[in-house]
Specification:
- By secondary structure, the protein is an alpha/beta fold.
- The chain has a single domain, classed as TIM Barrel (Alpha-Beta Barrel), CATH 3.20.20.140.
- Helices cover 36% and strands 20% of the residues.
- The protein contains nine helices and nine strands.
- The protein has a nine-stranded mixed β-sheet with strand order 2-1-3-4-5-6-7-8-9, sandwiched between helices.
- β5, α4 and β6 form a beta-alpha-beta unit.
- The two termini are 13 Å apart.
- Bound molecules: zinc ion.
């Protein structure tokens, strides 16, 4: 079984990932299940400019995810994309998550597109809620200051009931800092999204195969985004059976409580 822990849909600025494209991509590459979030929650664009025109409300962004997930119950679960710059944690968010905990595995935070560190005061209430209710937190990590993996490590120390996933394990870096930090805490994980296969192998060796998840950002480069992940998807035989099963299936099931 293959579970992709990091999928998207939605349209904002140069990104265009219609729901149909996502579903076709999963089908074409035999992905059995995935965790999805709506990129329309971006508050800043790729040039770090505030998106002035028609930002959807935080609730609207995630109601769209709920609608999608409900239509494909045997294929998808959602992550609630938070908008801590323009909005905040509210009673409505709390009620929505508790009501829909069968459809959402946790939260997604993007420090670049929200122009904020995960350790920022404005993320605190989301984190406290997730910690109380055992929701996971997927956080984009990269070489820029806001997205530095170290900030995820800091909050992971503070909130032991949250499983944190360092998405990309430091995009645009050699991943060594993220890998080092993942070894230090039980509730800190890494994913393979945009990570070279040799670095994924390195992460598995250093952190343990129970700490690294398969993820792709599909369908960010279109229906055939998975072609970029050819190496890792053909790693049966290169990885041990245990490593392979953990990476593609068992870690996601455990961390996201999928059964
Ligand atoms: Zn992503």
């Amino acid at each position: 079984m293959i579970i992709d822990s990091h999928l998207h849909f939605g349209q904002i600025r140069k990104f265009n990932m219609p729901q149909e494209m996502l579903l076709k991509s999963l089908e074409r590459y035999n992905i059995d299940f995935g965790i999805v979030s709506n990129i329309e929650g971006c508050e800043f664009d790729s040039k770090m400019e505030f998106i002035l025109e028609k930002q959807l409300s935080q609730m609207r962004v995630n109601v769209k995810t709920l609608d999608l997930v409900k239509r494909y119950l045997n294929k998808l679960k959602g992550q609630f994309w938070i908008k801590p710059y323009t909005e905040s944690f509210t009673k409505e968010v709390a009620e929505f998550m508790l009501e829909n905990k069968d459809y959402f595995v946790g939260f997604k935070m993007h420090p670049y597109h929200s122009n904020m560190k995960i350790s920022d005061e404005r993320c605190k209430e989301y984190l406290e809620f997730a910690n109380k209710h055992g929701f996971s937190f997927a956080v984009h990590t990269a070489g820029d200051n806001n997205s530095d993996p170290y900030h995820v490590y800091q909050v992971a120390k503070e909130y032991p009931n949250i499983n944190f996933i360092m998405v990309h394990m430091g995009l645009g870096t050699d991943n060594s800092k993220a890998i080092e930090l993942i070894t230090k805490l039980d509730n800190l994980y890494g994913d393979a999204t945009w990570v070279n296969f040799d670095r994924v192998v390195e992460a598995i060796k250093k952190c343990g195969s129970d700490k690294i998840l398969f993820g792709t950002d599909a369908p960010i480069d279109g229906i055939d985004t998975y072609q970029k992940y050819e190496d890792i998807m053909r790693s049966k035989g290169i990885l041990t059976e245990e490593e392979y099963n953990n990476l593609f299936e068992l870690n996601a099931k455990r961390i996201f409580r999928l059964d």
